């Protein structure tokens, strides 16, 4: 099977800072690194490294050829990434000494993905494949409509959070992945909680060091708690994306949900002990040995 990921591709500029700057504050960074990132690219790399076939649907500018080449090196199928007039998206990431981060994103080419390439990619999809989306690109609603018609399993990682974006595609979703803050934002805006009223069979709420909570329609949407691995974090950037990619890859390979979550939890634990994003996502052998 294949995971089709309509996802962002960014150049990540990571600044190591003593603490996250407050309003009006200027601080000096101890270091700067450029790497491959974007929630979409991170999830594609994670799923590919977890052992599944990933077709990435996206766009870069004329300055982004290096990012496409790197995705290819990491095992991602990049035939549905197009070059557009907008510059490649980028992110400014501040990471403090405790491993916490703050991120500013410039969408660039990620908001200029041609509708035609979405259609061309999904024309090769088969029932039972997975369509994955986040909120750093355009064309989510269009892709979800096609995916539903084709019988794809549609998963949505609701970040950066937008009530309008999530409610527009919620009727098509089979799986919703979001963190505790995003779940509270969704509830505050709509009154919805995981369950039959939401209309999404599977909701997975990540809680950082506290693990995650699964609400699954097969279990009556009763919450199931999964603990996180206890590690000392160095950099939490990309950990949630790694978790999502590994969960979906595990499910794509036929794992029960609990086993896929366990695998993803280990991958995320390894990830927070590393500096960087897509370039340092662990592969399946590392995760299984952890």
From TrEMBL:
GO biological process terms held by the UniProt record: D-ribose catabolic process
Record-annotated active site: 241 (proton acceptor)
Co-factor binding details: Requires a divalent cation, most likely magnesium in vivo, as an electrophilic catalyst to aid phosphoryl group transfer. It is the chelate of the metal and the nucleotide that is the actual substrate.
Enzyme class of the recorded protein, top EC level: transferase
Subcellular location: Cytoplasm
GO molecular function: ATP binding; metal ion binding; ribokinase activity
Reactions mediated catalytically: D-ribose + ATP = D-ribose 5-phosphate + ADP + H(+)
Activity regulation as described: Activated by a monovalent cation that binds near, but not in, the active site. The most likely occupant of the site in vivo is potassium. Ion binding induces a conformational change that may alter substrate affinity.
EC number: 2.7.1.15
Family: Belongs to the carbohydrate kinase PfkB family. Ribokinase subfamily.
Assembly mode: Homodimer.
Described purpose of this protein according to its UniProt entry: Catalyzes the phosphorylation of ribose at O-5 in a reaction requiring ATP and magnesium. The resulting D-ribose-5-phosphate can then be used either for sythesis of nucleotides, histidine, and tryptophan, or as a component of the pentose phosphate pathway.
Protein name per Swiss-Prot or TrEMBL: Ribokinase
Gene: rbsK
């Amino acid at each position: 099977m294949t995971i089709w990921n309509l996802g962002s591709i960014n150049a990540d500029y990571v600044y190591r800072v003593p603490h996250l700057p407050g309003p009006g504050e200027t601080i000096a960074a101890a270091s700067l690194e450029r790497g491959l990132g974007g929630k979409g690219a991170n999830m594609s790399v994670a799923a590919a490294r977890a052992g599944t076939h990933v077709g990435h649907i996206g766009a870069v500018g004329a300055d982004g050829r290096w990012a496409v080449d790197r995705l290819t090196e990491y095992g991602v199928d990049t035939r549905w990434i197009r070059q557009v007039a907008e510059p490649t998206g980028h992110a400014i990431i501040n990471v403090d000494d405790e491993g916490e981060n703050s991120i500013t994103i410039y969408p660039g080419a990620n908001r200029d993905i041609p509708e035609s390439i979405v259609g061309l990619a999904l024309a090769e999809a088969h029932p039972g494949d997975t369509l994955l989306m986040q909120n750093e690109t355009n064309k989510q609603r269009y892709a979800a409509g096609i995916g539903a018609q084709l019988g794809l399993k549609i998963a949505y990682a609701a970040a950066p959070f937008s009530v309008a974006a999530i409610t527009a595609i919620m009727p098509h979703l089979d799986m919703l992945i979001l963190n505790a803050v995003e779940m509270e934002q969704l509830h505050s805006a709509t009154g919805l909680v995981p369950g039959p009223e939401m209309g999404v069979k599977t909701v997975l709420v990540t809680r950082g060091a506290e693990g995650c909570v699964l609400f699954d329609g097969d279990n009556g949407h009763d919450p199931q708690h999964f603990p996180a691995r206890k590690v000392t974090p160095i950099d939490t950037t990309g950990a949630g994306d790694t978790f999502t990619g590994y969960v979906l890859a595990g499910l794509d390979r036929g794992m029960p949900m609990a086993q896929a979550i366990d695998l993803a939890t280990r991958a995320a634990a390894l990830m927070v002990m590393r500096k960087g994003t897509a370039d340092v996502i662990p592969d399946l052998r590392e995760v299984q040995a952890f």
